[in-house]
């Protein structure tokens, strides 16, 4: 049995949702293909954008400051963050690594059962590469945030008084459709959120906050026609 649990995020047709037929189809395919690879996945339904703002506020989250682009506070971005956050809660409760697969992910390679031994906090599983072998590499961010909240530039170790959105967005990981995360990685992210606020999920999984690694051999790709 794998050393991790798998959860597939799902966009399900609801009266209040605005998911497209393609979203629904991708959700089904992402679940089916994980089953074909014998991952025995559970599911997590996506939060609906129309209510994501009120839910976000009810949980007393705060936005990361200086987020100037429209996407950062878009209801879809909030819905995506809340959906991942819900799974992160399960990671901590179960005290076990989780493979989190987004609704539009498509698995293309079998995952080794012992893959959770190969990373510390989080492992990005959808990096596109032609590398012939499975090599784990550490993402090198431009900034780091220590356990105590101290912020520094990676290049010269100079202290940063205030993080801004542009700094964090420099460490954006593209094509984030599947990743693995361990309980301590979630704890690091939660502490950052408590101190600094919430970022969009693809920026939240930041090598400056956690030890973020990736494989040069992709296991997932985006499900795009």
Protein architecture, described:
The chain has 225 residues and is an alpha/beta fold. It has a single domain (5-222), classed as Spore Coat Polysaccharide Biosynthesis Protein SpsA, Chain A (Alpha-Beta Complex). It is 31% helix and 18% strand. The protein contains 6 helices and 11 strands. Strands 2-1-3-9-5-10-6 form a 7-stranded mixed beta sheet, sandwiched between helices. The chain has a two-stranded antiparallel sheet with strand order 4-11. Helix 1 links the parallel strand 1 and strand 2 (42-45). Helix 2 packs across helix 3 (75-94) and helix 3 (75-94) crosses helix 5. It is globular. The two termini are 33 Å apart. The model has no long low-confidence stretch (mean pLDDT 91).
Mean pLDDT: 91
Give helix and strand order, one letter per element, not per position.
EHEHHEEEEEEHEHHEE
Give the distance, in angstroms, between the N- and C-terminal Cα atoms: 33 Å
| Unreliable segments of 5+ consecutive residues | none
How much of the residues is beta strand, in percent?
15-25%
- How would a textbook summarize the main sheet? 7 strands, mixed
What fraction, in percent, of the residue positions are helical?
25-40%
CATH C-level category: Alpha Beta
Number of DSSP helical runs = 6
Strand order of the largest sheet: 2-1-3-9-5-10-6
- Structural class by SSE content: alpha/beta
CATH topology: Spore Coat Polysaccharide Biosynthesis Protein SpsA, Chain A
